[in-house]
Structure formats: structure tokens, C-alpha cells
């Protein structure tokens, strides 16, 4: 059933039989987006039809929005048009790990030069670009303009530490809504046909500000992708804030979740913030864990070169 819903000035068209939508999360969508600043770069790993991505773009952020479901991407594009933010978004139809690795791939020209970030002219087109990647979904999308060349390897295997959560003895909560990050707007090198609309885009391998992981049933298992994802040589500015949604059961604690995250990233998490979103069952609550990616997650250039040599030797 195709319908339209409205949230805080945004309109969303969707088909309940093909995509996920929960109107009870309206306040949470706005709570998180209120922490974003105009000009920031946002990565939405499980974007759906855009409940975070659309209001973030309306606020003046540039959003890299991904979802594995092609129907979600279709309605994300539709909603970007309806809300007139198609020039502030690039949509991806990929596995979430593949999506993040795809964004962080540094081109050969970037490796060989220290090109400075520059303002570019960007088209305001009728279609937002869609980047497709490997997935279990075979339904094709409309051909779109790619941001970078697609990667050829699989990213579906999780880090050993990112397995199913163990159970613990009691429930705990630490609520705080206080994250803000005022990073400056980043320019970029994404090229499209020019029709006179100027909007500076981020060179995403150098900086992004927030990552949204709104898949509470499994998002914690995807944190392994951030270990060694960012290259110290290219990264500029503060490390990004991650906002990871998860379900907490009555026999689990905030401390046990934090231990799992630290084991996955192999580093301590400074100043984690647990926000209780809502109760979904008598013994089950939805939480959002927000934290800044630890500096230990950055990878050195030598390690990247070694990994590339190892990959080439296995071909």
C-alpha cells in the first residue's frame, strides 16, 4: 500500500509492503538530526526511505545514504525529490560494509598528489545519483552517476569479535542527548554535469562527521568495518561520531554492550553516550549508543600498503 506520511516538515512516500517505516520513531529522528550542523557530511549505513537522511539534508548537511533494499532506495530518491534535497544526497544500494569501504577508497590521483579541497559546481538534476554494489538483491535500479568506481571484493564477513551478543545479568541505562559537532563544511571532487548550482561536496575519504547505524537488530555486528577503515595520511579534522542503534534485553547491561563494542574496535571508547529510545517489549528496549571513533582505529599508510600487497598476492 503506497501512502504519504509527514514528519516535522518532511514528506515521505512509501509502500508499507516493500519497505520499513515506524512513525513512533519520529521524535528520535529529530533528536539525532538536531545534533548535526549545516555543512556536515553524514553517512547513513541503513538509510531506508530516508527518515534521518531527508531531514539531515534539509538542515544543510550532505548525506551519503545506503540501503540494501532496492525498494528503499527507490523511495529514498522519490522522497529526496519531494523534499527538494536531491542535490544534497547520493544514494547507494550496497552491503553496509561494502558501502563504507567504498567511500573510503582513495583514488590513485589522491594517492599521488596532495590536492587541496576546492569548491566545485554541482548539477541540480532531476535524479539523485545511485551507486550500486554487490548484494543478495538482484532487482536492478535505474542507472545513476557513480561517486567512485565500485569495489570488487565481498564485505559480508564480520570480524570475529562482532558475533552474536552474549547475555548478561541486569539492565542499565545512561541517558544523555548532548552530542554536538561543529566541523566546518568540506568541499569535494564528485563530478556531474554543471547547470549552475553551486554546492560544495565533501571528499569523503578525508572527512565525514557522523555515521548513522539504524539497524537495531544487527548494527553492532557492523562496527567491525571501522577498525582500520580510515587512513591517517588522508584524514582531516576530528574523527566522526558513530550513532549505533541496538536492542537491550533485561538480562543485558549498557556495560556489556560497551565491552562488546570495545572488543570489536580493539580500543577503549571515551565518553560513550547511551540514549534510551523506547521500550519495544516488556523486557526489551531500543537504545542509541553515540561515541567518537577512537584514534586507534586509524590505519597507518604502511599497513594499507601491506594489505594491498597481500591482496594482490592472493589474486
Automatic annotation (TrEMBL):
SUPFAM superfamilies: S-adenosyl-L-methionine-dependent methyltransferases. PROSITE patterns: SAM_MT_TRM5_TYW2 (PS51684). GO terms for cellular component: cytoplasm. Coiled coil: none annotated. Residues 155-189 are annotated as: Disordered. Residues 178-187 have a biased composition (Polar residues). Transmembrane segments: none annotated. GO terms for molecular function: tRNA methyltransferase activity. GO terms for biological process: tRNA N1-guanine methylation. The keyword Hydrolase does not apply. Residues 1-295 form the SAM-dependent methyltransferase TRM5/TYW2-type domain. Gene3D superfamilies: Vaccinia Virus protein VP39. Keywords: Cytoplasm, Methyltransferase, S-adenosyl-L-methionine, Transferase, tRNA processing. PANTHER family: TRNA (GUANINE(37)-N1)-METHYLTRANSFERASE, TRNA METHYLTRANSFERASE. This is SAM-dependent methyltransferase TRM5/TYW2-type domain-containing protein.
